[in-house]
Write a structure and sequence with these properties.
Oligomer: heterodimer
Membrane topology (chain A): Multi-pass membrane protein
Distance between the termini of chain B: 10 Å
Subcellular location (chain A): Membrane
Radius of gyration of chain A: 22 Å
Order of helices and strands of chain A: HHHHH
Number of domains of chain A: 1
Structural class of chain A: mainly alpha
Order of helices and strands of chain B: HHHHH
Largest sheet of chain B: none
Number of helices of chain A: 5
Strand content of chain B: under 5%
Structural class of chain B: mainly alpha
Helix content of chain A: 55-70%
Family (chain A): Belongs to the UPF0220 family.
Largest interface: A-B, 25 and 19 residues
Keywords (chain A): Membrane, Transmembrane, Transmembrane helix
Distance between the termini of chain A: 53 Å
Radius of gyration of chain B: 17 Å
Organism (chain A): Pygocentrus nattereri (Red-bellied piranha)
Number of strands of chain A: 0
């Protein structure tokens, strides 16, 4: 019984973690957390306020467009846009740029639309519960930032 | 074989997590079985990683888009497993105590699954013949 704590070492963890190569992992996880938290916020709002007059169901479109924008932005790699990837892809470099442009436009558009919905549809209209509007805004904000983190948080060339 | 002790430890924590989940449903003051739906998320959570491993690493660098997509989807499944009990509790379908027990069970089970991958599944020598 004596000396049974002798075997425990503190601070001996050889945490030679190479943060450089963990960057992609952390970015992917952070993007996943943001994106799916956004969707669960709107699911929560839809469940708490199921009536049309509390939460007009057409407002869901905003989040759907934001998700499509997320998919479009992350479907092309930075290498294809720069033109230095091995394969040409479906549409070539110009096509990749147009695709990315449209994706970002949809992303910014849905973010702006969510703010419009919050202020125009809930705050100015003086609805008794503003929470659905806030939920739409936060859903789109989270999806937008999740898309940005997934796109720009990961690096494609790890041999520098 | 990475050790019998690790396997036994992981199976214990798995059983503990499932116990928390079932307590959240079956205790007398709760008695509602809706939280069992998080079992779907438990089963789905390792799948993106398996699919990414099977679709293969095209380069031997660490930046593998397939793997990162799998990590993204796995994170989403984990978030969903925590989100479902919270939403059920907010709508008063289950009690908040049950929600807390289910979330504790989630945490233990996902740590178990993570432990499985770190101890048994990691590395390039992962092969199906291991079993």
């Amino acid at each position: 019984m004596s000396g049974f704590l002798d075997g425990i070492r503190c601070g001996d963890c050889e945490c030679n973690v190479d943060w450089g190569e963990k960057r992609n992992t952390i970015a992917s996880i952070a993007a996943g957390v943001l994106f799916f938290t956004g969707w669960w916020i709107i699911i929560d709002a839809a469940i708490m306020y199921p009536r049309e007059d509390q939460f007009h169901h057409a407002y869901h479109t905003c989040g759907v467009i934001a998700t499509i924008a997320f998919l479009m932005i992350n479907a092309v790699s930075n290498g294809q846009v720069r033109g230095d990837s091995y394969s040409e892809g479906c549409m070539g470099q110009t096509g990749a740029r147009v695709w990315l442009f449209i994706g970002f436009m949809l992303a910014f558009g849905s973010l702006i639309a969510s703010m419009w919905i919050l202020f125009g549809g809930f705050v100015v209209a003086s609805k008794e519960t503003v929470y659905p509007g806030i939920a739409v805004f936060f859903q789109n904000a989270f999806i937008f930032f999740g898309g940005l983190v997934f796109k720009f948080g990961r690096t494609e060339d790890l041999w520098q | 074989m990475a050790g019998i002790k690790a396997l036994v430890g992981l199976s214990f924590s798995g059983a503990l997590g499932l116990t928390f989940l079932l307590l959240g449903c079956a205790l007398e003051q709760f008695g509602v079985y809706w939280p069992l739906f998080v079992l779907i998320f438990y089963i789905l959570s390792p799948l993106p990683h398996f699919i990414a491993c099977r679709c293969g690493d095209d380069t031997d660098s660490s930046s593998n888009a397939c793997r990162e997509l799998a990590l993204f989807l796995t994170t989403g499944i984990v978030i969903s497993a925590f989100g479902l009990p919270i939403i059920l509790a907010r709508k008063a379908v289950i009690y908040w105590g049950a929600c807390g027990l289910v979330m504790a069970g989630n945490a233990v089970i996902f740590l178990t699954i993570l432990g499985f991958f770190l101890i048994f599944g990691g590395g390039d020598d992962f092969s199906w013949e291991q079993w």
